[in-house]
C-alpha cells in the first residue's frame, strides 16, 4: 500500500513536471522580433510642432504572416515645459498611402519632459497586422513652444507626417524617425 501511494505521488510529480516543461517550451516557441528602425539617442534628429491631430510615423514591414503588435519604442527630446500625451495609430499601408487604422481602441502614452525613450505597451489590445503598416503617434493636444525632436537615421525609409488632423500625409524621404515595434509571430 505504501508503494502505491509512492507511485501515485511520483506519477503526479512527473506529470506536473511535463506540464510545466511543455508550457515553457511553448512560450519559447513564440517568435518575438523587432520591426522598424534601429533606436538611436544621438545628435541627429528631426523636429515637429505639437498640433492636436498631427501625426509622425514610419512605414514598417510586419511580414507576410500575421504578427501581434507588442510594444512601440522611440527616442525623443521633449523641449516643452510639460509632458505630452500621444495616441498610437497603425494604418494599413498600400501604394505609399495610409489606409484603414487597425487600432480600434484608444492607446495612449506620455512623452516626458527632456530626453526619453517611451515604451508604449500594445500587447493587451490584441492588434494583428501583416504586410506593410504605417505606425504613428498622434498629438492629443496643442502645445505651442519649442518643437519636439525625434532621433533619426538616414536612408532608412523616411518619415511620414501630418501637420494637423485635416492635413494630408507627407513624406520626408531621407530621414526616418527611429520608431520600432516589438511583434510576436502568430501561428
Describe the fold and architecture.
The chain folds into two domains: about 1-30; about 30-185, Jelly Rolls (Sandwich). The model has no long low-confidence stretch (mean pLDDT about 90). About 15% of the residues lie in helices and about 45% in strands. By secondary structure, the chain is mainly beta. It is elongated. A hairpin with a 2-residue loop joins strand 6 (about 85-95) and strand 7 (about 95-100).
Strand content: over 45%
Summed up, the helix count is 1
Quick one: biggest sheet?
7 strands, antiparallel
Distance between the termini: 47 Å
CATH topology-level fold name of the largest domain: Jelly Rolls
In the CATH scheme, the class of the largest domain would be Mainly Beta
Question: Using DSSP, what is the number of strands?
Answer: 17
Mean pLDDT: 89
Low-confidence sequence ranges = none
| Count of domain modules | 2
Net shape: elongated
| CA-atom Rg in angstroms | 22 Å
> Which structural class matches the secondary elements?
mainly beta
Helix content: 10-25%
The CATH architecture name of the largest domain reads: Sandwich
Succession of helices and strands: HEEEEEEEEEEEEEEEEE
Amino acid at each position: 500500500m505504501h508503494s502505491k501511494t509512492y507511485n501515485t505521488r511520483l506519477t503526479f510529480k512527473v506529470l506536473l513536471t511535463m506540464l510545466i516543461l511543455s508550457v515553457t517550451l511553448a512560450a519559447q516557441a513564440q517568435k518575438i522580433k523587432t520591426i522598424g528602425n534601429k533606436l538611436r539617442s544621438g545628435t541627429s534628429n528631426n523636429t515637429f510642432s505639437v498640433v492636436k491631430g498631427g501625426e509622425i510615423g514610419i512605414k514598417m514591414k510586419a511580414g507576410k504572416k500575421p504578427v501581434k503588435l507588442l510594444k512601440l519604442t522611440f527616442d525623443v527630446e521633449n523641449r516643452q515645459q510639460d509632458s505630452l500625451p500621444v495616441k498610437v495609430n497603425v494604418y494599413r499601408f498600400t501604394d505609399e498611402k495610409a489606409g484603414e487604422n487597425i487600432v480600434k481602441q484608444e492607446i495612449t502614452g506620455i512623452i516626458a519632459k527632456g530626453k526619453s525613450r517611451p515604451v508604449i505597451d500594445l500587447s493587451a489590445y490584441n492588434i494583428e497586422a501583416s504586410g506593410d503598416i504605417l505606425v504613428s503617434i498622434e498629438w492629443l493636444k496643442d502645445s505651442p513652444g519649442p518643437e519636439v525632436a525625434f532621433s533619426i537615421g538616414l536612408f532608412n525609409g523616411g518619415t511620414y507626417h501630418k501637420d494637423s488632423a485635416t492635413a494630408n500625409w507627407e513624406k520626408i524621404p531621407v530621414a526616418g524617425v527611429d520608431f520600432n515595434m516589438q511583434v510576436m509571430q502568430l501561428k
